[in-house]
Specification:
The complex is a heterodimer of chains A (280) and B (290).
Chain A (H helix, E strand, L loop, with lengths): L1 H9 L27 H28 L6 E4 L2 E4 L10 E2 H9 L34 E10 L6 E11 L6 H20 L5 E2 L2 E2 L17 E6 L17 H4 L1 H13 L10 H11 L1
Parallel strand pairs in A: 5-8
Antiparallel strand pairs in A: 1-2, 2-3, 4-5, 6-7
Chain B lengths: L5 E4 L3 H10 L3 E4 L5 H6 L7 E4 L9 E2 L4 E4 L4 H5 L2 H6 L1 H7 L5 H4 L4 H7 L6 H7 L3 E6 L2 E6 H4 E3 L2 E2 L6 E7 L6 E8 L10 E9 L5 E9 L6 E3 L2 H4 L6 H9 L1 H4 L10 H28 L1
Parallel strand pairs in B: 1-3, 2-3
Antiparallel strand pairs in B: 4-5, 5-10, 6-7, 6-10, 8-9, 11-12, 12-13, 13-14
The chains are: A alpha+beta (280), B alpha+beta (290).
């Protein structure tokens, strides 16, 4: 997804862009891949770095071709004259421009650097702030079956519609939302960390129960038509939003099915069973 | 660090028993799905593991009259065996609910019996089917009714240096049906909150000739619910099955854990006991009507 943003801005093919794993010994510091920041914050930084690299590339090309940078553009991996008819040829490959800039007296590589931080208000003493530059949104709906004798809840289908601005990579975005829903399902129905005297009582995945593939409902994920002006190519983050509304949707579906309101997570079969008994 | 553990591949059951007699800290290993966890948790510290892997006798399945399962038969192999799916569907149904296919591809019939974890699924079914556990030891072979084999929490009737070599399951009497229920409300892949195996035999008029109900994860061993008396001479109907299953409440002895409180498990023992009996009776009717 960061590759896509860089390739789009630089006019290169996706295959011509690599993302290297940063060695934290030498990489600059950043807050990290958290709070659904990667597409929005890192994406904007990558786009700005690509803009800088493209400007340097066009300056170098203008010098080599004895023209003005303003008259040049990068398209399909080649530097061309803007609006030139086909008879003027295919332009010069980006790699060729970069190589000539490097192998000359006083030459050097083209290095674009970008950094970006959204406008934000840090939390005040009441812990209220506005830290994100662009919020994403989700609507989720669940269909459940409740075993009225045992209280067991089975989620049959779950649908989500997400507003994450421009969808940069539909496959990854859908995967992020589906993964979020799986986490939301665990949060809603089964995951609970038990402590006694400060000692965890279920420190393994046998006792602490994540949903498995067999527990997943049929999922439907769709994206709202949306554009975030401050995001890279209109994009916002999509990392965490998938899980947010799942417990509420399931709790409301349980109420719709058997008429009991569940207010505490996880909504275990035993809690539903007790609620059903208390109602009788 | 855990100390290194010796491994000896036994060439015969007699050799395995002799090795166990020689070294009380040695343990037999087949699939290792239970033992490996116990070793990792430091609950068992064997000096030596005795493998039964290349004893082909212990891997035999014979479903001709009785069902004979060798101790080293993988659960997944038994679960998919045509003779078992046709003639002992409740065995396939039970084994098919154990853990996950990854586990079942390793775990063995005999290993699970010797492990005697009260939360396991097969023991209740073996007891309900009146299976017999075949053992071999320094004093020779024994046949132990499954109901007597499980003695206490992780304890069996096995004597020192004795190993499980197989399990023998009689055919269901004519007019019978059997069903297994496993309640895993947290996830499809879990130990049971409670499990139940029921066998119901009906006569041609629909009256109950015999009924058995055994619960798993409901006590330190499989718990037999004495339902036969309740049904005797009665039609298998809703009032009879409710009355019969209700007896589960007083005979189970579950514990509070992450799979539910003891009170909840008592309630569920009744619910899933009744469901197992009801499905077993439906299969019995099907057996009678052909």
């Amino acid at each position: 997804m960061l590759r896509q943003i860089a390739a789009e801005e630089l006019g290169l093919a996706l295959a011509d862009v690599d993302v290297t794993a940063a060695d934290t010994d030498v990489a600059t510091h950043a807050l990290g891949a958290l709070a659904s920041r990667v597409t929005y914050v890192a994406g904007n930084a990558v786009r700005l770095a690509a803009v800088s690299a493209r400007e340097q590339l066009l300056e170098a090309a203008a010098e080599q071709l004895e023209t003005r940078a303003d008259d040049l553009e990068v398209r399909d991996g080649r530097v061309r004259l803007k609006g030139a008819p086909a008879a003027f040829g295919n332009g010069v490959p980006v790699g060729e421009v970069a190589r000539r800039r490097l192998y000359r007296p006083g030459g050097g590589p083209i290095v674009g650097v970008g950094q970006w931080d959204n406008p934000s208000e840090l939390p005040d003493e009441t812990r209220f702030g506005n830290e994100s530059g662009a919020y994403n949104f989700i609507a989720e709906a669940a269909e459940v079956e409740v075993d009225a004798e045992s209280g067991q809840v089975r989620v049959v289908e779950l649908a989500a519609v997400v507003d994450c601005g421009t969808v940069v990579n539909p496959t990854l975005a859908e995967g992020q939302v589906e993964g979020g829903i799986a986490q939301g399902l665990g949060l809603a129905l089964s995951e609970s960390f038990a402590w006694t005297d400060g000692r965890p009582q279920n420190p393994n995945f046998g006792d602490y129960k994540l949903p498995t593939v067999g527990d997943m409902p049929v999922l439907h994920v769709a994206f709202a038509d949306s554009y975030e002006p401050s995001g890279p190519f209109g994009a916002k983050g999509v990392g965490e939003i998938g899980l947010d509304a799942v417990p509420a949707a399931i709790a409301n579906a349980i109420y719709d099915a058997v008429g009991v309101r569940m207010f505490e997570l996880p909504i275990t079969a035993e809690k539903v069973h007790r609620a059903l008994q208390a109602r009788q | 660090m855990r100390p290194a553990i010796d491994f000896r591949a036994a060439d015969s059951v007699a050799e395995a028993c002799a090795l166990l007699l020689e070294d009380p800290q040695a343990r037999v290993i087949t699939g290792g799905t239970a033992l490996a966890i116990l070793i990792r948790q430091g609950l068992v510290r064997p000096s030596c593991l005795i493998g039964l892997g290349h004893l082909s006798d212990l891997r035999q399945i014979d479903a001709a009259e009785w069902l004979h399962l060798g101790a080293s038969v993988r659960l997944r192999t038994a679960e998919r065996h045509p003779g078992i799916t046709q003639c002992w569907p409740v065995v396939a149904e039970t084994l098919g609910r154990v853990a996950t296919p990854r586990i079942r591809n390793m775990a063995t019939i005999g290993g699970g019996l010797a492990h005697a974890d009260p939360a396991q699924d097969p023991p209740a079914t073996f007891v309900a089917l009146e299976a017999q556990v075949r053992t071999a030891g320094p004093d020779g072979e024994r046949l132990i009714p499954a109901a007597d084999f499980f003695v206490d929490y992780y304890e069996t009737a096995l004597r020192r240096a004795e190993i499980v070599v197989g399990v023998d399951i009689p055919p269901l009497p004519p007019g019978s049906g059997a069903a297994f229920e496993k309640f895993t409300p947290r996830s499809v892949e879990d130990y049971a909150t409670v499990s139940a195996c029921a066998v119901v035999q009906l006569d041609a008029a629909g009256a109950v000739r015999d009924a058995r109900l055994v619960l798993g994860a409901a006590g330190v061993t499989p718990v037999v619910v004495p339902v036969a008396e309740t049904f005797r001479g009665r039609q298998f109907d809703e009032p009879a099955v409710r009355e019969a299953a209700e007896q589960a409440r007083s005979v189970v002895d579950p514990i509070d854990d992450v799979r539910g409180s003891a009170d909840y498990k008592r309630d569920m023992a009744v619910v899933f006991g009744r469901r197992a009996l009801t499905r077993a009776a439906a299969r019995a009717r099907h057996a009678i009507s052909g």
